[in-house]
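Hmm, how's this folded?
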Amino acid sequence: YLGVPFDLSEVLFIATANYEDRIPPPLLDRMETVEFRGYTESEKLEIARRYLLPRQMRQSGLREDELEIGDDAILSVVQNYTHEAGVRQLERELGKLSRKVARKIAAGESDGMEITRDSGKELLGRPRVHPERRATEDTVGVATGMFYTPMGGDIMFVEASVMPGDGGLVLTGQLGDVMKESARAALSYAKSHCETLGIDEKALDKREIHIHVPAGAVPKDGPSAGITMATALISAVSGRRVRADVSMTGELTLTGRVLPIGGVKEKVLGAVRAGITEIILPQENEAHLEDLPDAVRNTLTVHLVEDLHRVVELAIRSPKRSGGTAVATVRTEEVAPIQA
């Protein structure tokens, strides 16, 4: 701009981005990529306890004996008032608590406060984030899958409904091309393995299958919804219930192989937060389990699978006819599109 020479040969440029796939390929090819995952809830708790809360108390003019916040209260703020990979919004919410307590002290309404989960909600108002929770009972067609976004992981439900028809497949829920192909592959696998799956082939040809993935307003795509869609479909057609305490993720091939996926840590942590106790993962993702905190690995049952037949054995109950509507769970990544 000024026309003055400036030596950039020794300058180290550091650039950041939330989505790697949005970086122009020529630029990305010239850079060294360092990937940082979002913080876990336990990490956010520790950061809040050590750094965020003391800083907000100082800025509000509070002494240590004038404001105490328990771990449960901080976790409640994380779960009910923030939805982020970092801790920026968490610090804002802790700042609100500090300022409200400081106002009460200045007005002579209190000498200090101990914030609990309930009193924190009174001060911050109604929760603004509503995390998904696992289903309370096994249902025909209900399987649990996992998804992740840059904000973290979670679960969602894939609904499969069977009705009289010509063997067609209807897909709704703003599904991307990859997810649609996963659903078609699941249907083809079911048709070619009717006997082993306990499905009446003739009845399958006379039925129409409708698969819906909530939330309908959020675009979704990715391959890792494959085995969950297949589980929902098989359950709906066979009338067998799917376990509500099991969630799964994995790409499905036409021959029934289960291929590896990404975002294992985020997906598993989101499932555990939703109340899931057993996880089904591709065998080739075994190494990614080392990224999980010890506390999670020691309390969670993980099944590593190579084919859909094993998924069906683990997730679907023994044959027992029931209704015809089914629901299954899967989440994939902006409203941000969800990525499976």
Summary: The domain at 41-124 is CATH 1.10.8.60 (Helicase, Ruva Protein; domain 3). Residues 41-59 form the longest helix (19 residues).
